[in-house]
């Protein structure tokens, strides 16, 4: 499977705090941001570097800098917004593309009701953010949309993934790496990830 589960102790600790039954909205939101920051660190580990000479304190010094790779962060509405600031902390000049999807009750497929992509997608790494990878339908639809608009380099950052969703994404888009804090057990009949976090959007926005 094209999934990287980040086992770093801080990632696992923050995920454990998120799983608590009575976690407050404020705490859930803060932890989501912190976790997104740590997962983005992992997702950007292979950004290309280039050597340049700069004037250092004791004269010219050769340094490594990220090689002009442009980025776009792609939150999937609504819950993806909760991860946005954490990712932007690491890549503050990244441009933001936004996707909103709703389920068509006849076809049961996710359909876009909002899409606003930045330009030059063919030159950018797209980091899709959505806290929960459940059935995978929304993530596959978002990847389809990005590819249709020319994007060739795509990763997904999620907090918790279900095997069912990972399989759907892997089957449709084997080139897309998923970075997650956990690969959980399964989906229940209502489509919730078990043990999961419950409804992450409700917990981030306080709409429970
Ligand atoms: N969306 C959520 O917020 N939680 C789940 O468990 C599945 C989808």
UniProtKB/TrEMBL annotation:
Name a biological process GO annotation. Answer: UMP salvage
Q: Which GO terms describe its cellular component?
A: cytoplasm
* Keywords carried by this UniProt record: Allosteric enzyme, Glycosyltransferase, GTP-binding, Magnesium, Nucleotide-binding, Transferase
Q: Could you give a GO molecular-function term held by this entry?
A: GTP binding
Q: What is its EC number?
A: 2.4.2.9
Is Transferase there in the keyword field? yes
Is the Methyltransferase keyword given for this protein? no
- InterPro entries named among the record's database cross-references: PRTase-like (IPR029057), PRTase_dom (IPR000836), Upp_B (IPR034332), UPRT (IPR005765), UPRTase/APRTase (IPR050054)
The regulatory note on its activity is: Allosterically activated by GTP.
The reaction(s) annotated as catalysed by this protein in its Swiss-Prot or TrEMBL entry are: UMP + diphosphate = 5-phospho-alpha-D-ribose 1-diphosphate + uracil
The protein's required cofactors: Mg(2+)
A UniProt-annotated Pfam family:
UPRTase
Question: By its UniProt entry, which CDD domains does this protein fall under?
Answer: PRTases_typeI
The annotation note on the cofactor reads: Binds 1 Mg(2+) ion per subunit. The magnesium is bound as Mg-PRPP.
Tell me which residues make up the Phosphoribosyltransferase domain.
Answer: 5-207
Where are the bilayer-spanning segments?
none
Q: Which residues take part in binding 5-phospho-alpha-D-ribose 1-diphosphate?
A: 78, 103, 130-138, 199
Q: In which pathway does it act?
A: Pyrimidine metabolism; UMP biosynthesis via salvage pathway; UMP from uracil: step 1/1
HAMAP family attached here? Upp_B (MF_01218_B)
Classification via NCBIfam families: PRK00129.1, upp
Please give the family membership noted in the entry: Belongs to the UPRTase family.
Q: What is this protein called?
A: Uracil phosphoribosyltransferase
Protein species of origin: Iodobacter ciconiae
